[in-house]
Amino acid sequence: MNRLLLLSLFGFLSVVSPIANAAEDLTVLPALEGAAAESGLVYQALQKRAHEAFAKRKAVYENIKTPEDCEAYQKRMKDFFRTQIGGFPERTPLNPRVIGKLKGDGFRVENVIYESWPGHHVTANLYLPDSKPPYPGVLVPCGHSHNGKASAAYQRACILLAKNGMAALCYDPIGQGERYQVLSEQPNEYFKGGSRYRPPHPRVQYYCTAEHTLFSVSSIPLGSNAARYRIWDGMRSIDYLVSRPEIDAKRIGCTGNSGGGTLASYIMALDDRVQAAAPVCYSTMYRYLIDFNGPQDGEQNIFGQLAYGMDIADYTLMRAPKPTLICAGTLDSTFKIDGTWELFREAKRFYTRLGYAERVGIIEADAPHGFTIQLREGAARWMNRWLLNKENPIFEVEDQPVFTDEELQCSQSGQILLDAGERSLFAVNDNLNQKLAAERAAFWSSTDVSAARDKVREISGIQPLGSLPRPEFKEVGSISRDGYQIQKLIVTPDHGTPLPALLFLPNMRQGDLVLYLHGGGKQVEAETGAAIEQLVKQGDVVLALDVRCIGETSRKNNRRIGWSHGLLGPNYHECALAYLLGESMVKLRAEDILVAARFLSEIQSKKKTNPVVVTAIGETAIPALHAAALEPGLFSKVNLSQMITSWGEVVKTPETQNQLINTVHGALKVYDLPNLIQLAGREKVQVTLPASVTAGLASQE
Asked: Ranges for the Acetyl xylan esterase domain (predicted)?
């Protein structure tokens, strides 16, 4: 700490900095320019860590030389993948029903419903050839079409397969078609936030990408995300396919586009029944997503996968040497073609090591993102080769007629959630949490405080204070006010993201050391006459800090998440990238809080520390509670305001507001927020103005 800062602490400051006479400006960090202005400092720091993870994975990949190496790698990746999505439940009866039948030229369609979870139904269309069975069966998971399985491109892909002797099952994903999970009471003419697209049903309000991620927000505290449920839908759909007498269970394929390409990749990696696969407009290396568009919606991000070394290429490597065709578009602006070819080269080398180089291929349509006719024909020919042992060319009829949404409808109302007895996946999650609540209660009643604290630390990933390096605190300016000074500080911890802070120093110190954390930024209560001044006037030393993704470190305008309808906050990409690296924003912020509190506790002397009062408002409250629970000796009082009362509310509520940033993966397997209050010490924790999970938090300026 510099001499000027020390002198001001004890009221001996006799020289006023020239900056004090200027108009007050509480900004600390210099204005961002170029790439930093677009992506923000926090994302750039996480991006650097992601690149380090990519380099480590590449080194591991290059060390795979023999078939035995390949098989060991595959097992390790599959085990990790299953674990990170939360595993799969036991299979329950499908209870399938055929709702209606349609006739096409050379094929027929059955509208079907079956249960992937008890009381939770999948709406699907089964396209069957007019030729004599048995047929191979091809699963077609949908991409992000608002009307799901009724999208013309997916219909045409299925019709092409059926007209060439293969059955195709196309089903609505959650949050699309007839399976939206977040419905409004009032009808909507357009999706919320715009007037460009009409929803497939008047009660639908959010884009499918937003719904997928809202469901991930519900699932993350349980140790899973939307991927688990979407993969399970696909596996249960294969169960339905193979249950049909017309289908040859030994000849199953899978192809899907965009978000359906994601699901095709997941399903082909984890379900050994998929003999031939053709993911479309998804396969690229993760580096190209991180560097250009950022992580995509909820189900496309697996917890810790980048830190572990699991890239998108690994979904293809996991299934080798089963036949896989990579389908891509030259002009795909999301899943970059350069990354696709890099992925294909990895796959080709891996398949070659296993002795089956010919079983992985690639086609590139000179077209933008989408299940274009070239890619539909390519996928159909791949299935024709590997499921029917035929090499005849397959071409789609120009302007192939398709059915209307109403003709393909399976539910009574047009939305299965509105039909009698339907159970939403949020209700499924709530039921899972209720079971975990009993386990948590038993754990906390039978475990001593020290062991419980260790378990919370293990789940949250928050490092012990002694393991956190001391950051640099650099003074960059000062402001003089009546009776106190404000020092502008830049805090630079080892993670590399500079954190702006304001240190309020009374001329006569006679009160507490207060760490003030406002979800709207350090400046919110820093004006003359505001809450911080009231503390300083009574002799408190106050450090107001912007932790990561707060105030000056928050992204002001993220143009790439318009699909989120504002439900996920401005820092979605930071949260998602941290999640991919196996961390939560709660963890990152809690560590920022710990190093700042340590600095404040030692502000008079490192030999004799003083406990700190922490006041946290809005989305800083949960990280502050974690910090106090894990390092209770550092804090004398913990004042929390506008904090949600339980993650259980997040789990069961379909339409949450800006709660992704508050989640910790798998926390509810061990603890909930009230348990942290117990660890921090109930006598020193005060919670006021509890927040609703559906209301805007204090981070919204």
From this structure: 108-292
Residue 566 CA to residue 82 CA, distance in Å, equals 31
Distance CA 404, CA 389 (A): 33
Helices (H), 171-304: 208-219, 226-243, 259-270, 286-288
Q: By C-alpha distance, which of 4, 8, 507, 47 is closest to 289? A: 47
Q: Whole-angstrom Cα distance, residue 252 to residue 479?
A: 70
Dig out the tokens for 561 from the structure.
Answer: 């998440």
CB 245 within 8 A of CB 284: no
pTM of the complete model: 0.95
Q: How many other C-beta atoms lie within 10 A of the C-beta of residue 32?
A: 15
Distance CA(297)–CA(567), nearest Å, equals 12
Q: Provide the 10 A C-beta neighbour count for residue 197.
A: 10
User: Which residue bears the tokens 């800006």?
Assistant: 658
Rounded Cα–Cα distance for residues 550 and 504 (Å): 19
Query: Contacts by 199-204 with C-beta closer than 8 Å and gap 24+?
Result: 199/146, 200/146, 200/147, 200/148, 200/150, 200/405, 200/414, 201/414, 201/415, 203/415, 203/418, 204/146, 204/180, 204/415
Both tokens of 294, joined, read 């950022």
d(CA 191, CA 247): 39
What is the C-alpha separation between 194 and 191, in angstroms, rounded?
A: 6
Q: Which of 647, 627, 646 is nearest to 635 (CA)?
A: 627
How far apart are the C-alpha atoms of 608 and 602, rounded to whole Å? 7
Instruction: Give the mean pLDDT of the chain.
Output: 94
Q: What are the pLDDT digits (tens) for 421-470?
A: 999 999 999 999 999 999 999 999 999 999 999 999 999 999 999 999 99
Main-chain dihedrals φ then ψ at residue 229, nearest 5 degrees? -75, -35
Longest dimension (CA), the chain: 97
